[in-house]
Write a structure and sequence with these properties.
about 450 residues; Rossmann fold; GMP Synthetase, Chain A, domain 3; 7-stranded mixed β-sheet; about 35% helix; about 25% strand; globular; binds guanosine-5'-diphosphate; ribosome binding; repeat; AAA+_ATPase; GTP binding; nucleotide-binding
Length: about 450
């Protein structure tokens, strides 16, 4: 499970600044789901090759009425879903009554809390942050979020208790070719259930789709208690194939009422993506692709998971509108052209059965083993059909290729000056490999290595 780190504190202590530093902003997944998680911003962060989720909140002012009350509620929810809380204080402003209030709350909840004195740049950090020890929450870590000072030390310490929870980033398994036959490979994969996460914004039809999938006559659903804090795992069988459906929509109820959570949660969604082999992203045909959909897609892409997109509520639309929607989808989803698009009606069931075929295809594509000889042959064909360009007067020469991992498939290409290949040529190669290997539903990553 991806650990969750929440940034809490009064407004203006520097939470957003730290958030941006941790997530590099370009990965920030700004969630603005009306009435649900407004004021909570989620991002992916990586530290020392470990991935985690960061949640930023508006803040707690201590004067909880009106807007402040809403904001505070968001902060409390963020604390609730976090594994680690970074409680931020402003070393320049000193200790404020609102800080005391937050500390009081944090002492009551059973969370790992780290006190962070921010803005220690240009001041005497030791003396200015001394009074924060009064909060009785242990050591105070001095940082300057704006400049990055003290941040790695803070992460070193605060992430340590979570060491076991961290999924390691995919490590490229260099040169490890498993020469196994396609038959053997099929047999092996057949025995593994496909973990499929159904994700999407609220109201796109996830619950309806999940119920529809579970309700299909040919589907056998097993009973399995909730095993994770976030989503319920539902094993099901269809056409002799086993799946584990990761239910983010809360279709299956938890046994204990106390475990009931918000119907929709971003953390739950991100965790489900991370846990899955194939993501089934549901979008609403009538709403089009929103920024939230794009944020989710961004997360799926980053995670390297396989992807199938279901455009739901395809019922009762006239041909003109359908054509218009298709054009719009083509335009906005060009960057995930490896994913199959299905037009379905979860409500009436049309198109739902076909989703399974694409899920299997995506899974098998992602886990396909390909040997060095074949990859090198494909690379040579690509090179013959379309020569790499000259770089500083010399022609880039690709020498050989091998598999560098799977799920998602990684192709490692060795050669001279391959690092200098323009991105257009890299894209050409990626598409060439995709077509030649008949890979659909999964991104392919190509890595380049200098020399032989
Ligand atoms: P938030 O409301 O807690 O999210 O706070 P912001 O991140 O928006 O920061 C509030 C203000 O403090 C902004 O003007 C920041 O530029 C400033 N700030 C944040 N971090 C630092 C820091 O490390 N040093 C200094 N001097 N200012 C900072
Ligand atoms: P979730 O929040 O993503 O789980 O969405 P729900 O499954 O609860 O569906 C939200 C609303 O959309 C409900 O009123 C559903 O009846 C409706 N809905 C779901 N799927 C379809 C569909 O295929 N067609 C139509 N017309 N409505 C649908």
């Amino acid at each position: 499970m991806l650990p969750v780190v929440a940034l809490v504190g009064r407004p203006n202590v520097g939470k957003s600044t730290l958030f941006n530093r941790l997530t590099n902003t370009r990965d920030a997944l700004v969630a603005d789901y009306p009435g649900l998680t407004r004021d909570r911003k989620y991002g992916q962060a990586t530290y020392d090759r470990k991935q985690f989720i960061v949640v930023d909140t508006g803040g707690i002012t201590g004067d909880e009425e009106g807007i402040d009350e809403h904001m505070a509620r968001q902060s409390l929810l963020a604390i609730d879903e976090a594994d680690v809380v970074l409680f931020m204080l402003d070393a320049r402003a000193g200790l404020m009554p609102a800080d005391q209030g937050i500390a009081e709350h944090l002492r009551k909840v059973n969370k790992k809390v780290f006190l962070v004195a921010n803005k220690v740049d240009g001041i005497d950090g030791d003396s200015e942050s001394a009074e924060f020890y009064k909060l009785g929450l242990g050591n105070v870590y001095q940082i300057a979020a704006a400049h990055g000072r003290g941040v790695s030390q803070l992460l070193n310490t605060s992430m340590a208790p979570l060491a076991e929870d961290f999924p390691e980033m995919a490590v490229v398994d260099e040169g490890k070719d498993e020469e196994i036959s396609t038959e053997e490979q099929r047999e092996r994969l057949r025995n593994l259930p496909i973990k499929m996460a159904i994700v999407g914004k609220p109201n796109v039809g996830k619950s309806t789709l999940t119920n529809r999938m579970l309700g299909e006559e040919r589907v056998v659903v097993y009973d399995m208690p909730g095993t994770t804090r976030d989503s319920i795992y539902i094993p099901l069988e269809r056409d002799d194939r086993e799946y584990i459906l990761i239910d983010t929509a809360g279709v299956r109820k938890r046994r204990k009422v106390s475990e009931a959570v918000e119907k929709f949660s971003i953390v739950k969604t991100l965790q489900a993506i991370e846990e899955s082999s194939v993501v089934l992203l549901v979008v609403d045909a009538r709403e089009g692709i929103s920024d939230q959909d794009l944020s989710l897609l961004g997360f799926v892409l980053n995670s390297g998971r396989s992807l199938v997109i279901a455009v739901n509520k395809w019922d009762g639309l006239n041909t003109d509108i359908k054509d218009e929607i298709k054009r719009e989808l083509d335009r906005r989803l060009g960057f995930v052209d490896f994913a199959r698009l299905h037009f379905i009606s979860a409500l009436h069931g049309s198109g739902v059965g076909n989703l399974f075929e694409s899920v299997i295809e995506a899974y098998e594509s992602a886990t396909k083993r390909v040997n060095t000889a074949l990859l090198t042959q494909i690379m040579e064909m690509a090179q013959e059909e379309h020569q790499p360009p000259l770089v500083r007067g010399r022609r880039v020469k690709m020498k050989y290729a091998h598999a560098g991992g799977y799920n998602p498939p990684v192709v490692v290409i060795h050669g001279n000056q391959v690092d200098d290949l323009p991105s257009s040529y890299k894209r050409y190669l990626m598409n060439y490999f995709r077509r030649s290997l008949n890979v659909m539903g999964t991104p392919i990553r190509i890595e380049f290595r200098e020399g032989a």
